[in-house]
Design brief:
The strands form three sheets. Strands 1, 2, 3, 4, 5, 6, 7, 8, 9 and 12 form a ten-stranded parallel beta sheet that branches. A two-stranded antiparallel sheet has the order 10-11. It has a two-stranded antiparallel sheet with strand order 13-14. It contains eleven helices and 14 strands. By secondary structure, it is an alpha/beta fold. It is globular and about 55 Å long. The two termini are 36 Å apart. The chain has a single domain, classed as Aldolase class I (TIM Barrel, Alpha-Beta Barrel), CATH 3.20.20.70. Helix 6 (167-180) links the parallel strand 4 (146-148) and strand 5 (183-185).
C-alpha cells in the first residue's frame, strides 16, 4: 500500500477502523483466540558501537548497562528450554553488535547456539545487526526460522535517530535475509518523536517488501535514562491501537507482535491492541535491557480475555551427550494445560 492509502485507513472513525481490522484478522487467522508467546534473550549485552538514540546498549551513552561477553552455548540452551516449558513457541536471540562476519569465532558460536535451539522444536529467531548474503545463508542452514531487523521509523526521520548507519543499510540486510530463504521479522518503534505520517511511511516501506514480513513487531519506546531520548513521553494508547489496526489491514498475513513497552500499557490498552489485530507478544520478565510484564501476569491477562497461547508441537528433548531423546517424562505437560 502507498502512503495515501494507509493514511485514509488510519484516519477512519476509530470504531470503524477497529471493526474492519477485526474482520480481516478473523478472516486470515481462523484461530482468532490464539496468542503466540515469544521469548527474547540477550546473548550479548552492551558495548555496541552504534549510536541509536533509543538504545541503552550503545557504548556512546552512560546508561548503566555494562558490556558483557557472549553467553556460553549451554546457558543459551538452558534458557531456551525454560522458555519452551513456559509456553513460548518462538525463541529470539539478540546481540548488541553492529553486525556479524562469517568465519569469526563469535559468529561460529552463534551458529552453534542456533543448531541447539532449533532441535527443541521452537521457531528460532536472531537479531545480530547487519548481514551479508554469506552470513544470512549460514544462519538459515544452521536452523534460523526468522531474522529480526527492524526499520524503526520512516526513511525521512531515520537520520534523526541513528547516524552510524543508513536506512539503506537496513534495507540491504533485509534483502540478504529474504534472498537466503529466512522469514523476515521487521517492524518499528513508536514514541521516538516521530509524527503519525512517519509511522505510516514506515508501514508503507514494510508493505512494499517482497515477500512481506512474516511478523511485524510494534515497539513502544522505553525511554532509557542516559539515552538522547530519555525524556520522550509515552505514546498515546489510541494512536498505538490505530497503528496496530492499520498494520493488520495492510499486512493481513503477518503476525503483529506487541513488543517492547508493554509495561506502560494497561490491561485494557493491551486488550484493545489484541482486538485490533495484535496476535503475538514477547513474554517473560525482560526484553534485552528493559522490563517486560511478568509471565504470570501475561497468562492471567490472556485467561481474562479468553485467549490461549499458540500451541507448540511436541518436540523431543535434546542433550549434548545423547542428541535427540524421545522420552515422555521430558514433555512439559503443564504447558499444554495453559488456557
Amino acid at each position: 500500500m502507498n502512503f495515501d492509502e494507509l493514511e485514509a485507513i488510519y484516519h477512519r472513525p476509530f470504531f470503524d477502523l477497529l471493526q474492519q481490522a477485526r474482520q480481516v484478522h478473523e478472516a486470515y487467522w481462523p484461530e482468532k483466540d490464539e496468542m503466540q508467546l515469544c521469548t527474547l534473550l540477550s546473548i550479548k549485552t552492551g558495548g555496541c558501537s552504534e549510536d541509536c538514540g533509543y538504545c541503552a546498549q550503545s557504548a556512546r551513552y552512560s546508561t548503566g548497562v555494562k558490556a558483557e561477553r557472549l553467553m556460553e552455548r549451554a546457558e543459551v540452551l538452558a534458557a531456551a528450554r525454560r522458555a519452551r516449558e513456559n509456553g513460548s513457541t518462538r525463541f529470539c536471540m539478540g546481540a548488541a553488535w553492529r553486525g556479524v562476519r562469517a568465519g569469526t569465532e563469535k559468529f561460529n558460536q552463534v551458529l552453534g547456539m542456533v543448531r541447539d535451539v532449533s532441535q527443541l522444536g521452537m521457531e528460532v529467531c536472531v537479531t545480530l545487526g547487519q548481514l551479508s548474503d554469506t552470513e544470512a545463508l549460514q544462519l538459515r542452514e544452521a536452523g534460523v526460522t526468522a531474522y529480526n531487523h527492524n526499520i524503526d521509523t520512516s526513511p525521512e526521520f531515520y537520520p534523526e535517530i541513528v547516524t552510524t548507519h543508513t536506512f539503506q543499510d537496513r534495507l540491504n540486510t533485509i534483502r540478504a535475509v529474504q534472498d537466503s530463504g529466512m522469514a523476515l521479522c521487521c517492524g518499528g518503534i513508536v514514541g521516538l518523536g516521530e509524527t503519525v505520517e512517519d509511522r505510516l511511511r514506515m508501514l508503507a516501506v514494510l508493505t512494499s517488501l517482497d515477500p512481506a514480513p512474516e511478523s511485524v513487531p510494534i515497539n513502544c519506546l522505553m525511554a532509557m535514562p542516559g539515552t538522547p531520548l530519555e525524556d520522550q513521553a509515552p505514546v498515546d494508547i489510541f494512536d498505538l491501537v490505530r497503528l496496530i489496526a492499520t498494520t493488520r489491514l495492510a499486512l493481513p498475513r503477518a503476525r503483529v507482535r506487541l513488543s517492547a513497552g508493554r509495561t506502560r500499557l494497561s490491561p485494557e490498552g493491551q486488550a484493545m491492541c489484541f482486538f485490533a489485530g495484535a496476535n503475538s507478544v514477547f513474554y517473560g520478565d525482560k526484553l534485552l535491557t528493559a522490563a517486560n510484564p511478568a509471565a504470570r501476569a501475561d497468562l492471567a491477562l490472556l485467561q481474562a480475555l479468553d485467549l490461549r497461547p499458540h500451541a507448540l508441537p511436541v518436540a523431543p528433548a535434546f542433550t549434548e551427550e545423547k542428541g535427540l531423546v524421545f522420552t515422555p517424562e521430558n514433555i512439559p505437560l503443564e504447558t499444554a494445560e495453559i488456557r
